[in-house]
């Protein structure tokens, strides 16, 4: 029992390392070559995981080979756009000024239901509101609405707004994030004072604490 357990853990760590080397893309954002490598890794790794008579290296070496090939191809794709277009294809426009390019949809095997669904996910329910839309190389639809249908911005109204900043997560489930605390320009003494000001005795009773550069504080206590 111990041997299969150890082999599985080793192969698991090998796959985690391989995925980390491939980058931070989600499955839906992968290019075709990245998706193929992911599928091949899952297929290759399952054989030595189930059969302990197969040497462990017979699973690790193919994984490392696939990742090395993927990293090499990705590097070459950055240097030669033609290779990138060959592997990943090009974005395909499918809507211009509310008019659907039916030929492009057929080539992509993209039905009108698929197109309308993607538009709804982008917050557009009327095709006439689309100025331009194209299917990207990862299969997602990018949409540019008509100018009179796009949300108005403060700049268009001639307004000046205060710069915003991303809130820093300082406490998560009772644990203080020291790096976020330093980025917020605070120390433990300042944190204790902030907690007392919001009625919290110590970090262990706090589920969430976020602060921003404008002085905003969001504090949620743990539920009993």
Key descriptive features of the protein:
224 residues; alpha+beta; CRO Repressor; four-stranded antiparallel sheet; 8 helices; 46% helix
Describe it for me?
There is one protein chain. This protein has helices at 2-22, 32-50, 57-79, 81-88, 102-108, 112-121, 178-183, 188-197, and strands at residues 92-96, 99-100, 130-135, 141-145, 168-172, 175-176, 206-211, 217-221. It has 224 residues and is α+β, with helices and mostly antiparallel strands. It has 3 domains: 2-86, no CATH class; 92-145, 2-Layer Sandwich (CRO Repressor), CATH 3.30.240.20; 168-221, bsu07140 like domains (CRO Repressor, 2-Layer Sandwich), CATH 3.30.240. The chain has a 4-stranded antiparallel sheet with strand order 2-1-3-4. Strands 6-5-7-8 form a 4-stranded antiparallel sheet. The mean pLDDT is 83.
């Amino acid at each position: 029992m111990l041997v299969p357990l150890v082999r599985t853990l080793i192969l698991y760590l090998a796959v985690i390392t391989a995925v980390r080397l491939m980058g931070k893309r989600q499955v839906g954002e992968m290019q075709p070559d990245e998706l193929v490598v992911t599928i091949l890794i899952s297929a290759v790794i399952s054989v030595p995981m189930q059969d302990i008579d197969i040497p462990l290296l017979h699973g690790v070496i193919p994984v490392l080979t696939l990742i090395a090939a993927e990293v090499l191809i990705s590097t070459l794709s950055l240097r030669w756009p033609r290779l990138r277009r060959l592997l990943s294809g090009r974005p395909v426009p499918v809507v211009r000024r509310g008019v659907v390019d039916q030929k492009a949809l057929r080539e992509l095997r993209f039905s009108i239901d698929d197109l309308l669904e993607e538009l709804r996910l982008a917050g557009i329910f009327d095709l006439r509101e689309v100025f331009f839309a194209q299917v990207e190389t990862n299969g997602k639809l990018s949409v540019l609405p008509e100018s009179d249908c796009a949300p108005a911005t403060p700049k268009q109204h001639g307004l000046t707004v205060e710069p915003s900043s991303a809130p820093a997560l300082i406490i998560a489930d009772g644990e203080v994030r020291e790096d976020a605390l330093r980025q917020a320009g605070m120390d433990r003494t300042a944190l204790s004072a902030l907690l007392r000001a919001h009625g919290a005795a110590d970090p262990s009773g706090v589920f969430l604490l976020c602060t921003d550069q404008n002085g905003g504080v969001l504090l949620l206590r743990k539920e009993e």
